[in-house]
Amino acid sequence: MPDDEVEPTTSGSGFSRRNLLVGASAASVLAAAGWPGAAQAAPRDDSLKITIMGTSDLHSNAVNWDYYKDATYSDRDQNAIGLARVSSVVKQIREKRGRDHTLLFDAGDTIQGSPLGFYYALVDPVTESGATHPIAAQMNAIGYDAVALGNHEFNYGLEFLDYWISQMDADVLAANAVHAGTKVPAFTPYTIKTMKVKGRPPVRVGVLGLTNPGVVIWDKANVSGKIEVLDLVEAAARWVPVMRREGADVVVVSAHSGESGTSSYGSDLPVENAAKLVAEQVPGIDAILFGHAHVDVPERLVTNTVTGKTVVMSEPKNWGQRLSVFDLDLEFSRGKWSVTKGSACTINTNTVVDDPELVAVVRAQHEAVVKYVNTPVAVSTQALSAAEACWKDTAILDYVNEVQTATVAAAVAGTPEAALPIVSIAAPFNRGATFPAGEVTIKDVAGLYIYDNTLMASVLTGAQIKEYLEYSAKYFKQVAPDAPVDPAAWTNAPWPTPQSPTIPDYNYDQFSGVDYGVDISQPVGSRIVGLSFNGAAVAADQKFLVAVNNYRQSGGGGFPHIATAPVVYNAQVAIREAIVSYASAQGTIDPADFHVENWRLVRNGTPVV
């Protein structure tokens, strides 16, 4: 297995005071940010403190920029995003701790999730141009030591993933992603880094990478028959002893997996959010950097049930908004180091400014994307908004269904399936999405359709569509018929099973092409009323051609029937690009041409809005 050395750095380290906040020392900034390790007592000769830093769910955010708004990123909590911000904090910690006392890891979902990632995967692919991927370039410039694969690393296919890995200086890890039908890792399982601290015996830090089992559902088209993803606990139990035998004094797990012990895809696959289970059940782990849930978990102390020892865990908030910092106290005894105590915190990257060196690394690529997203595609006759799309049939979501329906209809023309009525499914991905009156640009489309899904079409029966809609209607809380009208408060109901705290907006699928009501005064499973097509009740055995995205068709969200339905169309057309192409061809976006209010919220038959 790889055994790389992290050499002490005293000069030529690639950073300087000019990258810190003006007038503030690294120690003072970190102390203000709440880092408990900002001031430390001098260690004994047989003791040592090392610092492990970690990011997760960067989602191709390189700089503090919102491509959808064409402006500096901002939110109500004054967060900042991007690897350029992360770099400034990392440099401060390295300055304070000493480069030889620190390592930097990532827990996955790095290359997909922003227009920057989309552009260099699909519009101007680095695999064709030969350019360095912007995230690889930045990670190399910062000096990451190891990166675990997240599920979104598989979105653009294995060839693209392999190309990105080849550009990375850091080890890219995924112990539980194996060649299909075997237990042979398809990627490097772990690496051991040797930290050479002046005047001390070397410290060997092993890091194990684990990815998410949901890959085989969410990216079935890319990995089926090629990659399988094993249980995280099983993989950790296999590899941690190997790392210890190879001399790892410290073992860190970098896992793209939440901590809750639950899954969004049911029980057919190993647990999705298994980070805490790994800490509890696998002996020999000192710390776990985890991600996937997009939440800020500064520190979680978990007792291993086998050894009784404490495992320190931390999850940094997504997009580079936080950096996890683990401080591990080590003691040297009988010729080896061991961890005696661990703590963790997260540092808010809004406490620093963008590292200008990291901005420079991607400036040309960033500017190319800004130019691209500001390209006009059509003119809208009026302003369209998704603000009410979670509880009301809106024109802007109907436009997604219009494009999907037209694309599928053109694709099946001349086939037996052309005789089937076409319905389409869309979900409200972004309540802030708008098409302005007048010029609509690619960034407006990207703000509406924020995921890199592709379009598919399957065949469902009327009975199956009704069951699908009932499942979707779980999104709403049950509301009394005479309760005050407050639809915004009725969304995001708790999951009927404890998969996550609430049902997200992207799991509320809406159909076009059929007419129906959602009676939220009724219990889950009995809410869909008046399901009809062309004025007649939908028959249980009536067949429909259903336009659907690949995430949903692969089983994402656990909706019934769709994952096993016959697939009629799968040309790998990106839905966002289909919307852009359709809008460009039409030239005008006029709701009068496509907006039909075919579904509505009701209570005891009375429409809510």
Secondary structure topology:
Elements: E1 3-6, H1 26-32, E2 47-55, E3 65-66, E4 71-72, H2 83-97, E5 102-106, H3 115-123, H4 126-129, H5 134-142, E6 146-148, H6 158-167, E7 171-173, E8 177-179, E9 190-195, E10 203-210, H7 215-218, H8 220-223, E11 227-229, H9 232-245, E12 250-255, H10 275-281, E13 287-290, E14 297-303, E15 310-315, E16 322-333, E17 336-348, H11 356-373, E18 376-380, E19 384-385, H12 395-412, E20 422-426, E21 434-435, E22 438-441, H13 442-448, E23 455-461, H14 462-472, E24 510-512, E25 515-519, E26 528-533, E27 536-537, E28 543-549, H15 550-553, E29 567-569, H16 575-586, E30 588-589, E31 599-603, E32 606-607
Parallel strand pairs: 1-9, 2-5, 5-6, 6-7, 10-12, 12-13, 13-15, 18-30, 20-28, 25-31
Antiparallel strand pairs: 2-16, 3-4, 8-11, 9-10, 14-15, 16-17, 18-22, 19-21, 20-24, 23-28, 23-29, 25-26, 26-27, 31-32
Describe what you observe in this structure.
- Helix 5 runs antiparallel to helix 11 (356-373).
- The protein is of the alpha/beta class and 609 residues long.
- It has 16 helices and 32 strands.
- The protein is globular, with a radius of gyration of 25 Å.
- The longest helix has 18 residues, at 356-373.
- Strand 26 and strand 27 form a beta hairpin.
- It folds into 2 domains: 43-369, Metallo-dependent phosphatases (Purple Acid Phosphatase, chain A, domain 2); 375-607, 5'-Nucleotidase, C-terminal domain (5'-nucleotidase,  domain 2, Alpha-Beta Complex), CATH 3.90.780.
- The chain is 25% helix and 26% strand.
